[in-house]
Hints:
By secondary structure, the protein is α+β, with helices and mostly antiparallel strands. It folds into three domains: 3-130, Pleckstrin-homology domain (PH domain)/Phosphotyrosine-binding domain (PTB) (PH-domain like, Roll), CATH 2.30.29.30; 149-206, EF-hand (Recoverin, domain 1), CATH 1.10.238; 209-296, Recoverin, domain 1. Helix content is 44%, strand content 20%. The protein contains ten helices and eleven strands. The chain has helices at residues 3-17, 75-82, 113-148, 158-168, 175-185, 195-206, 209-217, 234-245, 270-280, 284-288; strands at residues 19-24, 30-37, 43-46, 60-61, 65-70, 94-99, 104-109, 231-233, 248-254, 260-266, 291-293. The strands form three sheets. A seven-stranded antiparallel sheet has the order 4-3-2-1-7-6-5. Helix 3 crosses helix 6. It is elongated, with a radius of gyration of 24 Å.
Amino acid sequence: MGNDDKHLTNVLKQLKSGAVLVKRKIDGKKYSRRFFLSEHEDFITYQKKKRHIFGRPHIYNINDIDEVRSGFRAQTFGQLLKNGRIKSTDENRALSIMYNNHRNELHLMANNTQTRDLWAEGIKYLIDRHAQKHQGHLIREENYFRSADTDKSNSLSKRECRRLLSNTLNVEMPDNIFEQLFQKADVSREGLLTQEEFVSFFQLLTQRKDLYEIMQEHTKNGSTQSIEKIHMNINELLTFFQTVQNQKIIKHTKTDGGENKITWEYIETADQVQKLIDEFELNKELREKGLLGLDGM
C-alpha cells in the first residue's frame, strides 16, 4: 500500500470514528451533532440526541453528494456572516455539502481547521471513488448491450433482453416482473430499448426494491444500508436459505457406470453458500470477502 493509500485509509478511519460538527441554518439556528461515516463508507449521518425520541437522523448518501466546499462559499454562510451570527475568522472551520443535484445543502462548522480539512478531504475522495465505480458500471452495461444486440440494430428487443438475462446473467425472472421493468425503461414506448434505456433497465433489474427489502430484513443493520451497498455475509445467507427460502441447489454426480446424474440438495453448509457467491456475485471484492450484494441475488 502506497503512502497516499495509507493516508486516505487513515482519513476514512477517522471519519468513521466521528467528530462533533455544528449544523448551521440560515436563520441562525445551530445543532451540535457527532457526525460519522458508515462502516461500509456509503453514507454520512450523525448520532441522535437521547432526548429526541421520535425521528431518525438524516442519512447523506455518498452517491447523492455533488460537491464539498470549504469556507464561506455558500449563501447560507454569507447570510450568517452578514447578520453577525458568525465571524469572518470562522471561515477556516466552515464546510458545505451540496447534494441531490445541488437542490439541498448541509452547512457545518468544525471545532478547528484540521477537522474541517479532514472531512473535506475524506468526502471528496469518496465522491471521486463513487464516480469511478459508476463509470465502470456504465462500461459493463454497455458491453452487455453490445453482446445482446445480435442484429446490430442499436436496440434490444424483449427477446434479446430475455436471452441476455438467462444466458449471460443467469437471471430467472417472472414474466410480470420483466414486463414491468422493460416498460418502465422503455420511455420511447417503441417496444425496444436503446442503449440508454437498457442502462436504466439494468439498473432497475439490479436494484429491485423487493430484493432490497428482503435483504434489509435479513441482514444485520439492514435498515441503515443503502440499496447500492447492502450485502449479506455467509452466515446471514445460510440462515436465510434454511429458514426462509428452503433453498435447494443442483448437484452433479456420476453413477457407478460413469453417467452424469443431477440431484437436488438443500443448502446446509457455508461452503455451499460460498459457491453460490462465487457463481452469482458480480463484484470481485465482495466475492473474495464472502459477501453477496443485491446484484447477485
